């Protein structure tokens, strides 16, 4: 089977003609991956919109929450122990129990949860109290400019301007995905700021302080924009009303 | 194959993997194992905290991922990498017969090389996913340099290929533990001549003829 007549040593070693299949498959697979990086987001969004999050949730990588925690642990808070302390530049400082919050007017809507790192979960059902209603309940003073949020794990903090906090899709949520907010999602009570990236939606909400200037929160101190609008702009007001 | 196990004293040994290749395989396997093990709680958040705290799992996943190409690169470069480089050429170069064998899913005749077409595909796939997972994983780690759309695409590709890797690696391990003679060669380096005559006949001929394929040493 050796072609001993050949003067070419390389081909003399080859019993038959060779095809560089390895190189082709390698380039084909990596090319496919590159296309996936370029267009995977659009494909996922299209499938999510066309078939709802049910199908997307079955696809690998699609529509799935990644659970983040700064401390590496989840604060475990019993519903009966839960307290939300609202203080600062307010007329009537107040501490809310979970029942207090549930007794207030209910706001519910279905919105996408979009993480700044790229994953998203469409069609998440949210339910809770408008932050605006909580501010009205305590009565904020004229000199108030912003809100500072603190979490039960004492690690995460967040901020919103008063105008941002007044938006109609910014809530203190106690139900999510059709059930009470679970511990890993920040339960029993978390913030949900629909027009901004997920890091603004602080989990395990323990306190709101009304303050006279924006105090950048944990993630902002680590380089994220203070105003985390979903379209990536960094201004204080939402440039795209359709996002709210 | 059973022949080789019962008549060990008379087995003619044919070298299949040199020390460098075996070390590279096991270093690569250890990294893949650590990455796959840590990927499960990172993907299914609810497992979080059961074994290790999440931030530790993240760090293990990150550093193993960054180290992933090292065994392959180090084993290919340098004077010790001759066996590796030779096998990379084998994996790359296919005969028409091999292509047909794969197209007919093993029903056409095959005078097998050192690796059969399925084994070659496995090696090519692993090589490609090392690059793909490293690039998309780095995009997720240092996401600030990429648009949200690219981050989403990188997440999609990283997750989709992770599923493919689990399928391929489980297949690889299943084939390995059901083919003991071949399995031994990744521990001890050699296969029996009888095994090679059945499963890698072209390679065996080449090593016997010594026509530029000095795998037997």
Question: Could you characterize the architecture of this molecule?
Answer:
The complex is a heterodimer of chains A (244) and B (217). With 244 residues, chain A is α+β, with helices and mostly antiparallel strands. Chain A folds into 2 domains: 12-58; 79-243, Alpha-Beta Complex (Sulfite Oxidase, Chain A, domain 2). In chain A, 26% of the residues lie in helices and 26% in strands. In chain A, strands 3-2-11-6-7 form a 5-stranded mixed beta sheet. In chain A, strands 4, 5, 8, 9 and 10 form a 5-stranded antiparallel beta sheet that branches. In chain A, a hairpin with a 5-residue loop joins β6 (146-151) and β7. With 217 residues, chain B is mainly α. Chain B has a single domain, classed as Transmembrane di-heme cytochromes, Chain C (Fumarate Reductase Cytochrome B subunit, Up-down Bundle), CATH 1.20.950. Helix content of chain B is 69%, strand content 4%. In chain B, α2 (19-43) packs antiparallel against α3 (54-67), α2 (19-43) packs antiparallel against α4 and α7 (117-141) runs antiparallel to α8 (148-177). The radius of gyration of chain B is 20 Å and the shape is elongated. Chain B starts with a helix and ends in an 8-residue tail after the last helix. The interface between A and B is large, with 52 and 60 residues. β1 of chain A pairs antiparallel with β2 (93-95) of chain B.
């Amino acid at each position: 089977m050796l072609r001993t007549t050949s003067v070419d040593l390389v081909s003399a070693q080859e019993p038959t003609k060779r095809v560089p299949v390895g190189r082709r498959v390698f380039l084909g697979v990596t090319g496919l991956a590159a296309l996936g990086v370029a267009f995977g987001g659009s494909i996922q969004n299209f499938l999510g919109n066309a078939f709802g999050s049910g199908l997307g949730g079955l696809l690998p990588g699609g529509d799935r929450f990644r659970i983040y925690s700064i401390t590496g642990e989840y604060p475990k808070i019993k519903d009966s122990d839960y307290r939300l302390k609202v203080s600062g530049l307010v007329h009537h400082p107040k501490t809310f129990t979970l029942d207090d919050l549930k007794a207030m007017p209910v706001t519910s809507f279905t919105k996408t949860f979009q993480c700044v790192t790229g994953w998203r979960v469409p069609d998440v059902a949210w339910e809770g109290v408008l932050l605006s209603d909580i501010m009205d309940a305590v009565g904020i003073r004229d000199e108030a400019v912003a809100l500072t949020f603190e979490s039960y794990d004492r690690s995460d903090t967040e901020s919103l301007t008063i105008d941002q906090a007044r938006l109609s899709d910014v809530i203190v949520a106690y139900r999510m995905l059709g059930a009470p907010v679970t511990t890993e999602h920040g339960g029993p009570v978390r913030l949900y700021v629909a027009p901004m990236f997920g890091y603004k939606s602080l989990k395990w909400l323990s306190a709101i302080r009304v303050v006279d200037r924006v105090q950048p929160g944990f993630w902002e101190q680590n380089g994220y924009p203070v105003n985390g609008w979903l379209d990536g702009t960094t201004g204080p007001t939402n440039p795209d009303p359709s996002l709210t | 194959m059973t022949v080789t196990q019962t008549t060990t004293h008379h087995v003619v040994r044919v070298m299949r993997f040199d020390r460098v290749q075996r070390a590279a395989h096991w270093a690569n396997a250890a990294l893949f194992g650590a990455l796959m093990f840590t990927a499960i709680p990172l993907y299914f958040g609810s497992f979080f905290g059961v074994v290790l705290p999440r931030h530790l799992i993240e760090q293990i996943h990150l550093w193993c991922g960054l180290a992933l190409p090292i065994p392959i690169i180090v084993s290919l470069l340098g004077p010790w990498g001759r066996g590796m480089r030779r096998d990379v050429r084998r994996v790359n170069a296919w005969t028409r017969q091999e292509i047909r064998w794969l197209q007919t899913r093993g029903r056409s005749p095959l005078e097998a090389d050192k690796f059969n077409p399925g084994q070659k595909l496995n090696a090519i796939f692993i090589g490609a996913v090392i690059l793909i997972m490293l690039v998309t994983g780095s995009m997720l780690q240092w996401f600030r340099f990429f648009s949200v759309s690219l981050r989403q695409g990188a997440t999609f590709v990283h997750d989709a290929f992770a599923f493919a890797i689990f399928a391929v690696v489980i297949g690889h391990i299943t084939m390995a533990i059901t083919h003991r003679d071949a399995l031994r060669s990744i521990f001890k380096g050699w296969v029996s001549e009888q095994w090679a005559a059945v499963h890698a006949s072209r390679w065996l001929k080449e090593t016997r003829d010594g026509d530029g394929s000095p795998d037997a040493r």
